[in-house]
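Query structure, 398 tokens:
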């Protein structure tokens, strides 16, 4: 058994276990903390730094990705997973359309970045760091604002981005395990994370590789269990499923307030708005106008989807993980989206787990969040741009 303990900016990291486990966790932590003697608060810190020991990876037919450290406007890095552009056809056999996670503000992006870890908070800003206590008991609006405060391109993970992660995991056959039983995975008690103060939550990234989206140590951790996670840009309102256009939920100017102008109906392939009918324990996604309004939850395998909808597949609103639960409130009002499940979820948790039954003012001890990032297209002439760095949330060229 080996042990290691570090601290940085008041954030502690500790790991105990096999030499390989401790080595992997220490390398991930020190990759950003020790680079160039910890340029922690320097305004001149680069916006993106490759993390040592994590080589770029290409998965035929899925997505190219690698792991980098990206600094925000406070000069503090987050460990991020880079995903490169992919089409629906490549991902789940849909059309040739680019997956909406890569379409932001009407522009197609070649890559997006998603936090490797559930986020912890430092000075009111969320960060993706290993072996940390994840933030919880925060509303979706407050978490989204905290993400936007990190600078241009930073945002709360969106419904489209979570859908991308779930679809990739399904494509790979690596649906993530996680903390679904007070520190361990319900399917195998030998799969454990490091408990926080005796439990039931675990430190970020402290579980085995099977707790990532691709079952690799460099994958995105803790998408199943531990904490439900806010996903901006999808909701149910008066029984209707709605979402932001493509990945516009990544933009602070997108109006996703309760009566905001930028909500659009989630539709079937014929363009008909979709509603959710809840009748006792039966849940049905349908284009019918007459529905039953109630609250319930059931396995995705038992949800009746009475339509063909590529948009539902983009958002991973389908039975990609049959035992994961779909909780829905179709009564009058607005209900926003967390995903993934909690430490208590058992088989009902998973990357496809969905919970559309809480209002936007709700905060709970079992809901946290994860930030994401995109490098906004520069308005400067690329032929004259010699140095590009993020400063105070804006792109500067010199």
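Result returned for the query:
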């Amino acid at each position: 058994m080996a042990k290691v303990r570090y601290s940085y900016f008041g954030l502690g990291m500790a790991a105990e276990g096999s030499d390989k486990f401790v080595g992997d966790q220490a390398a991930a932590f020190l990759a950003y903390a020790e680079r160039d003697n910890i340029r922690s608060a320097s305004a001149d810190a680069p916006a993106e730094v490759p993390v040592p020991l994590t080589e770029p990876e290409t998965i035929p037919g899925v997505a190219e990705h690698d792991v980098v450290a990206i600094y925000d406007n406070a000069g503090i890095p987050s460990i991020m997973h880079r995903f490169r552009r992919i089409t629906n056809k490549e991902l789940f056999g849909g059309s040739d359309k680019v997956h909406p996670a890569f379409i932001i503000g009407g522009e197609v992006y070649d890559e997006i970045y998603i936090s490797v870890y559930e986020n912890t908070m430092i000075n009111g800003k969320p960060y993706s760091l290993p072996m940390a206590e994840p933030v919880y008991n925060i509303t979706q609006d407050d978490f989204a604002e905290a993400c936007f405060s990190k600078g241009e391109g930073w945002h709360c993970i969106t419904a489209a981005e979570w859908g991308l992660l779930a679809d990739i995991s399904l494509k790979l056959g690596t649906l993530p395990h996680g903390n679904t039983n007070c520190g361990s995975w319900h399917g195998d008690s030998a799969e454990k994370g490091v408990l926080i103060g005796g439990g039931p939550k675990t430190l970020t990234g402290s579980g085995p590789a099977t707790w990532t989206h691709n079952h690799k140590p460099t994958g995105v951790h803790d998408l199943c269990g531990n904490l439900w996670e806010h996903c901006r840009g999808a909701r149910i309102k008066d029984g209707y499923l709605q979402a932001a256009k493509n990945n516009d939920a990544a933009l602070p100017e997108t109006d996703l307030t309760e009566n905001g102008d930028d909500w659009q109906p989630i539709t079937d392939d014929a363009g008909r708005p979709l509603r959710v009918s809840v009748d006792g324990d039966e849940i049905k996604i349908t284009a019918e106008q007459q529905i039953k309004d109630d609250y319930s939850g059931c396995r995705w395998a038992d949800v009746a989807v009475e339509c063909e909808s590529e948009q539902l597949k983009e958002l991973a609103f389908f039975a990609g993980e049959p035992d994961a639960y779909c909780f829905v409130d179709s009564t009058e009002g607005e209900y926003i989206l967390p995903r993934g499940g909690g430490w208590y979820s058992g088989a009902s948790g998973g990357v496809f787990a969905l919970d559309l039954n809480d209002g936007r003012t709700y905060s709970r001890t079992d809901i946290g969040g994860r930030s994401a990032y995109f490098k906004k297209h520069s308005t400067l002439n690329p032929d004259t741009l010699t140095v590009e760095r993020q400063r105070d949330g804006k792109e500067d060229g010199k």
